[in-house]
Design a protein that fits this description.
eight-stranded mixed sheet; D-Amino Acid Oxidase, Chain A, domain 2; alpha/beta; globular; 417 residues; FAD/NAD(P)-binding domain
Length: 417
């Protein structure tokens, strides 16, 4: 079915009894043209664009749990294209353009809200760095406005501008940045892929990857063996574990990133705000809850729960920046498993095994990258060539040292990104 205002009105007046399932729940077939391991945002978008852009419909997405139960539902929902280095710039710029047309493309409300993102700076050095970043964004064709202290005060009067340790000097305003509803993004891509013939196989954990004479021939799962000549590994924080099934050791370290939601409040925060000194970021959801987060927990884990010290650190940063939120009650928190690469940038590449492809290393950029990641991964799997938007995301850069993209300028170590 297609969604429309008339259909929503009709269902609302008749008890919402006419809605059907958003996607099928098929049994796995013995063989497919391509298999995507991972039913999160990146895996679902890969399947969708394989079908839409390349006409491949005999595809299965294998998810060990339920669709949208992993990292795509465990983030702070921020969408932006404010990257600095060539390689990352054009990729995230393309992703934002896809975001802007996504609801029309999918015929699904992903609640994409371009409310604007403001990165605050707190020193002369940070101002210079953000001025350079803003100029790079404009040269790429994106939008950026450098705000002085009074410009920020006019937009965000509730911040603590006179904090002794971290006075606010100004901010870099990215008007097209914003948020989207993470669950709806997963559901929209799942529905779109299913409508194009893709099989979404839930509760189907991959337990092995079958390789014969250097060619992938399929996978072993908890629901039996499934054959395919093309297999994409798109499993975020589980990338190292799945790659190990193919005998690969990849330069990924998995750690947890926590996020938090408060009780519903009246509208108070109109933008996405990023604290330049405390690594704190916050927005307000359509239901009124304040959604915020901070640093990763800085220890390797596959757990989806974080620790109390980092929770305290995030709360302290929030109170430092905007004391007004101090009385808001935190309702819940969750953790997403981050697949951290040594240079803080992702991998979309072939492997040394023919027909086996790798998509990983998204660090903090996973949710905002969902459309372009799927677009580029689909292009690679269908054609064997790298998309122009992801031509720098090569796995070999960590072996050769050539083409590393240290976006933060902090060095090529996992724990620095």
């Amino acid at each position: 079915m297609r969604f429309s205002a008339l259909r929503v009105l009709k269902e609302g007046l008749t008890g919402n009894k006419g809605w059907g399932p958003h996607w099928r729940d098929p049994e796995p077939k013995p063989e497919y043209d391509a298999i995507i391991i991972g039913g999160g945002g990146h895996g679902l978008s890969t399947a969708y664009y394989l079908a839409k852009n390349h006409g491949m419909t005999n595809i299965a997405v294998l998810e060990k749990g339920y669709i949208g139960g992993g990292n795509v539902g465990r983030n702070t929902t921020i969408v932006r294209a404010n990257y600095f280095l060539p390689g990352n710039q054009e990729f995230y710029s393309h992703s934002l353009k896809l975001w802007e047309d996504l609801e029309i493309d999918l015929n699904y409300n992903v609640m994409h809200s371009q409310r604007g993102l403001i990165n605050l700076f707190h020193s002369d050095g940070q101002r210079d760095a953000f001025a350079r970043r803003g100029n790079a964004m404009i040269n790429q064709g994106d939008d950026a406005i450098l705000l002085d202290r009074e410009g920020v005060r006019e937009m965000l009067p509730y911040l603590d501008f006179d904090n002794i340790r971290f006075p606010i000097y100004g901010g870099l305003y990215h008007p097209r940045g914003g948020t989207a509803r993470h669950d709806a993004v997963a559901w929209g891509y799942a529905r779109g892929a299913d409508q194009r013939g893709v099989d979404l196989i839930q509760n189907c954990e991959v337990t092995g990857i079958d390789i014969e004479n250097g060619q992938v021939i399929g996978v072993q799962t908890t629901r039996g063996a499934i054959k395919a000549r093309k297999v994409g590994m798109v499993v975020a924080g589980r990338s190292s574990q799945v790659a190990a099934m193919a005998g690969m050791q990849i330069p990924i370290e998995s750690t947890v990133l926590q996020a938090f939601v408060t009780e519903g409040l009246k509208p108070v925060i109109d933008h996405v705000i990023s604290f330049g000194m405390g690594h704190f970021y916050i927005s307000q959801s359509d239901k009124g809850g304040l959604v915020f987060g901070g640093d990763v927990d800085f220890y390797a884990t596959y757990s989806q729960r974080g620790n109390l010290p980092m929770m305290e650190h995030v709360m302290e940063a929030g109170m430092t920046l905007m004391p007004m939120i101090g009385k808001a009650k935190v309702l819940r928190s969750w953790g997403g498993i981050m697949d951290m690469s040594p240079d803080g940038s992702p991998v979309i590449d072939k492997t040394h095994i023919d027909g086996l492809f790798l998509n990983c290393g998204w660090n903090y950029g996973g949710f905002k990258a969902v459309p372009a990641s799927g677009w580029s991964m689909a292009h690679l799997m269908a054609t064997g060539n790298h998309s122009e938007y992801a031509s720098k995301f090569l796995l070999d850069r960590f072996r050769s040292g050539y083409g590393l993209m240290d976006e933060e300028g902090t060095g090529s170590q996992h724990n620095l990104h």
